[in-house]
Amino acid sequence: MSDIDFQQYPNRSAASVAAAQLLAYCVERQWQTERRASIVVSGGSTPGECFDALSRKTLPWSDVTVVPSDERWVPATHKDSNERLIRERLLQNQASSGHVLSLFRQDLATADAITTIEADLNLTALPFACVMLGMGEDGHFASLFSDFDGLDQALNPENSALSVPVKTASSPYQRMSLTLSALRQTQQTALLIFGQPKRLVFEAALNGDNTYPVQKLLANLSSPLTVFWAA
Questions:
Q1: β-bridge mates for residue 65, sequence order
Q2: CATH of 4-230 among 3.40.1260.10, 3.40.50.1360, 1.10.260.40, 3.10.290.10
Q3: All residues at 6 or more sequence positions from 60 whose CB lies less than 8 Å from its CB, including other chains
Q4: Do the beta carbons of residue 227 and residue 134 sit within 8 Å?
Q5: How do 70-72 and 37-41 pair as beta strands?
């Protein structure tokens, strides 16, 4: 297991700003050597303040690609789209020239979109400078829910697939998620989580409770992990 640095903050804003600082550092580090950079970010309500803070960082944004860790199979204009969140909260201010690698592909079913998504990932995004994930109170990350029929393969670190269609009772939407093997192709991993219930889930998974999907992430890290937590 790679190094895990658990950082506790007095409030969620402070944790979000610290996570943004790490993402900015990782972008600059990769850009210095490759003249391009890519980051994976989560969706949902948690990363909004982090995106706001990161959008104000002076970085070579025109050379930066932002990849959602997962996506509901809805257009980027939809209120529940993770891409919409990225565009409205992250690709603003200094970051307005950044790019999104869309997981949703208009007029394609999820299974039919995998080939083009994975080609785009290989061409423009891999390896990542940093992967910043969230986690649910059920221990899922990206769209890798515990009731997903294909979970074992999606969590297999040796899986050759980079993305996987997901349909579960946990979500009313079809989804597309990056696999664990894709998320491991990074120089740095980060986890931004809030609230005591999520801390308890994280600690249980860290101690080997494999009922939580995040346990597989923690057990198969390929890069240092920084956890940003606040109550």
A1: 38, 99
A2: 3.40.50.1360
A3: 27, 28, 31, 37
A4: no
A5: unpaired
Question: For 167-213, how does the pLDDT look when each residue is reduced to its tens digit (9 = 90+)?
Answer: 998 788 999 999 999 999 999 999 999 999 999 999 999 999 999 99
Structure tokens, 123: 């061409």
Amino acid in position 220: N
157 backbone φψ class: left, alpha, beta (φ>0; ψ -120 to 50): alpha
* Residue 126 DSSP one-character state: P
User: Six-digit token pair at 222?
Assistant: 């390929």
Taking the C-alpha atoms of residue 56 and residue 26, their distance in angstroms, rounded to an integer, is 15
- Overall pTM > 0.90: yes
Tokens of 153: 């393969």
Q: Which residues contact 29 (CB under 8 A, 6 or more apart)?
A: 129, 187
